[in-house]
Amino acid sequence: MQYISTRGKAPELNFEQAMLSGLARDGGLYVPRDIPKMSHGDIAALAGLSYEEAAFRVMWPFLGESFTEEEFRGCIERGYSGFGHDARAPLKQLGPNHFLLELFHGPTLAFKDFAMQLIGQLFQTALQRSGERVTIVGATSGDTGSAAIEAFRGLDNVDVFILYPHGRVSEVQRRQMTTPTEDNVHALALDGHFDDCQARLKDMFNHFEFRDEVRLAGVNSINWARVLAQVVYYFTSAVSLGAPHREVSFTVPTGNFGDIFAGYIAKRMGLPIQRLVAATNQNDILHRCMSTGEYRTDEVIPSISPSMDIQVSSNFERALFDAYDRDGAAVGQLMDELQSGGFSVSQGALQALRETFASGRASEDETRATIERARTRMGELLCPHSAVGVKVAEEQQIGEIPMITLATAHPAKFPDAVEAATGIRPGLPPRMSDLFERDERLTRVTNDLEAIETLIKERIAK
Ligand SMILES: *Cc1c(COP(=O)(O)O)cnc(C)c1O
Fold first, then answer.
1. What EC number(s) would the UniProt record show (predicted)?
2. At the N or C end, where does the chain have fewer CB atoms within 10 A?
3. Catalytic residue positions?
4. List of long-range contacts for 425-429, beta carbons under 8 Å, 24+ apart
């Protein structure tokens, strides 16, 4: 299985290379050259399997020769062993034909653990084999960073640096990043927004001298291996509601378009998904783009669902690549236009996107009202991101086809917003109840590429 760049100018890589490098050298994102198909029978056979076995069957065709079957099964087993729920991704009914897919039972209480725990194991396996060392740098609006640190802390061949926007992540998120004591963990608080963190990260990847010197590896949602890990729960949840004999739809709280893009891959593989609905908060570039065809960046307005406070939605480039019939030059052109504020999606591409994707937006008031209503009417405490999803899903007029809304984080990760809406302060699960007593360790950095690169070089030289 080979991987190609969405901008068409980087060398093709195999799975392991694409995973270790993250961003392609032409600035594009890696996607599989061909999407493996699962037959009706293959999908039906997933019913009743453990999450781990289903994960193996769904992902294996994408790996090619990179890992042995035994290595890969070991990575899956170890990756998901720290989850606090046997089903890993349990499904709950919210209302008539409306279901909630709980993706927050991992070690950092957000769906990012599904991908990060697995790729921590895959990196470890690949690097042990080659004896190499890499420097992982990630940008986070909160949850990616905590999930990455949790997945890579203490691993032998890796240093992990996480850039997060200072003062703009929740206290639980920050503490999950700043309290691990391992020497290979470095939490960097940047003066700026998440988009600044993401922009500096991209700069580092495009600065080849630095990239090669520190052996930079990326684990942001642009990393193909992360997208792949997220494909699995689309299959397990759909099958438990009757797929492949029956269609399902999903609503996905969206920021960087990674999670929802995994749903699109599941559909391309043969899962009968009728619709994938992108749910945004007030930072609604994706909803505006789907509605009007205009992809124009705006100021980020901080919200109570901070993990979706994003204006530049990196993985959308992957969806555009397919919508433009895999024309890398056309995608490269759009991304150039984005540098000066935005671009218009062509009519044909917009039509292609709308065949699969729909979209909606929830304001802050609507999000709060949904958290409150879910509590009183459905007995469910939702995190603000999941509430954005539930609100947008309900607008879709759920009919015969079941709607599955992804619950992307545990309410205890955003206790202030949940308490403000419901009067109830959600408690952390017992396994992490001492989080607020642990010491914190972080480094403040300015929004300056050179300063950040110098700091990273100094730290890894030790
Ligand atoms: C990261 C995150 C999202 C957005 O996911 P994308 O893959 O970036 O679209 C939504 N909710 C929570 C809780 C997250 O951590």
1. 4.2.3.1
2. C
3. 112
4. 426/381, 428/109, 428/172, 429/84, 429/109
Atom 8, ligand 1: which residue's CA is nearest? 256
Q: What's the predicted TM-score (pTM) here?
A: 0.95
Determine whether 313 is exposed, middle or buried from the number of CB atoms within 10 Å of its CB (0-12, 13-18, 19+).
Answer: buried
Distance 307 CA to ligand 1 centre (A): 6
Tell me, in angstroms, the distance from the centre of ligand 1 to residue 142's CA. 9
Angle at 29 between CA 274 and CA 210, to 5 degrees: 155
**Any residues with Cβ below 6 Å from ligand 1, and which?**
110, 112, 143, 221, 253-259, 307-308, 385, 408-409
Per DSSP, what are the bridge partners of residue 351? none
* Residue 456 clears pLDDT 80, i.e. is over it: yes
Q: Which CATH number fits domain 91-107+225-422: 3.80.30.20, 3.40.50.1100, 3.40.190.10, 3.30.160.60?
A: 3.40.50.1100
* Domain boundaries defined on the chain: 91-107+225-422
Q: Which residues contact 128 (CB under 8 A, 6 or more apart)?
A: 156, 157
Nearest-atom number in ligand 1 for the CA of 254 is 9
